[in-house]
Write a structure and sequence with these properties.
By secondary structure, the chain is an alpha+beta fold. The protein contains 3 helices and 8 strands. The strands form 3 sheets. The protein has a 4-stranded antiparallel sheet with strand order 3-4-7-8. A hairpin with a 6-residue loop joins strand 5 and strand 6. The longest helix is centred in the first third of the chain and has 21 residues. It starts with a strand and ends with a helix.
């Protein structure tokens, strides 16, 4: 019997006590999103036709804004590269941060992508991770 039909129930809108299966946990979902994001950005950078790439991925070229359902228009795709050279976290029993600079081999690079939308009245940015996470939720992955 297919997974989507269990004990006469279609999909996941039923009590999970009647069958066993695995769901991705939040740490795995975050790791998966990180991989998807890196691959999406790499594909965008390599694409000969950037607009076609975005369309194929389902990135909205227009989105709702304060003036209506298609008020904001996609005008820029912003890529930023950051290198994590250390970590800082609250110290126990102190207002000082515990700072740990990384040795060179532990420094990591990451590229972030934001979709920049504008309208006559406003400007907004959508982090590509938010877009990909919403696609993942819609696809039920």
């Amino acid at each position: 019997m297919p997974h989507d039909i269990v004990n006469g129930h279609i999909g996941h809108n039923h009590d999970h006590a009647d069958h066993l299966h695995s769901h991705i946990d939040s740490a795995d979902a975050a790791a998966e999103l990180q991989v998807l994001t890196a691959q999406f950005i790499d594909g965008f950078q390599q694409a000969a036709d950037k607009t076609a790439y975005l369309r194929l991925a389902g990135v909205p070229l227009e989105r709702p804004g304060s003036a209506g359902p298609t008020a904001q228009k996609l005008v820029d795709v912003k890529l930023t590269t950051e290198w994590q050279v250390g970590t800082a976290s609250p110290s126990f029993g102190s207002r000082e941060l515990s700072y740990l600079p990384f040795p060179g081999s532990m420094v990591s690079e990451r590229t972030n992508m934001h979709l920049v939308y504008v309208s006559i009245d406003e400007k907004s940015e959508m982090d590509i991770r938010d877009f990909l996470a919403s696609k993942r939720d819609v696809l039920g992955a």
